Amino acid sequence: MLPKPGIYYFPWEVSDGHVPDGSTLRTFGRLCLYDMARSLVTLTAKHKSDQYQLLVCTKLVEPFQAQVDSLYMVLGELEHEEDGGSVVKARVLTCVEGMNLSLLEQAICEQRLYQQKRDKKGIATTSTYQTLPPAPEPLQTPEEQRGRCPFPE
């Protein structure tokens, strides 16, 4: 049986414990530390004025060329540890340096809104997707967001 597809979570949602244990997830962050001896990577992400850290186990993706201060995307399973922390067991760890993070965050929010609207309409689905987290409140009005969007509507 194939593993479940990963649901996009923001790094601050994972760090704050909003993701259930064993969930398959996708998230992102800047690689700030690679401990080869323990097969652990520390990803960081800023949200508003806070800095969040996320531990990623790299045993399944080694060897890989770690590029410190580069942006990475990870697909894996979340495991909560006894000390209260959590680790993502990476199945895929990809350097995505140069990706526009603000557009990714906007796309994740739009995906969540679409899923919520679809669920409200009662459209039955047989997909293996996990329940998506609620879409965050937009920081800007849709009109302001359209002004930033480089894609035609």
Sum up the structure in keywords.
153 residues; alpha/beta; five-stranded mixed β-barrel; 3 helices; globular
Textual characterization of the structure:
It comes from Nannospalax galili. This is CST complex subunit TEN1. InterPro entries: NA-bd_OB-fold, Ten1_animal_plant. The chain is built from three helices and six strands, in the order βαβββββαα. Strands 2-3-4-6-5 form a five-stranded mixed beta barrel. Strand 5 and strand 6 form a beta hairpin.
Mean pLDDT: 80
Q: In angstroms, what is the radius of gyration?
A: 16 Å
Which class do the helix and strand fractions yield? alpha/beta
The low-pLDDT segments are: 138-153
Q: Could you state the order of secondary-structure elements as H and E?
A: EHEEEEEHH
Shape: globular
Strand order of the largest sheet: 2-3-4-6-5
Strand content: 25-35%
Number of strands: 6
Helix content: 10-25%
Amino-to-carboxy terminus distance: 39 Å
- The total of helices stands at 3
Concise structural overview:
By secondary structure, this protein is α/β, with parallel strands linked by helices. It has helices at residues 11-15, 101-120, 142-148, and strands spanning 7-8, 24-35, 40-47, 50-57, 71-80, 86-95.
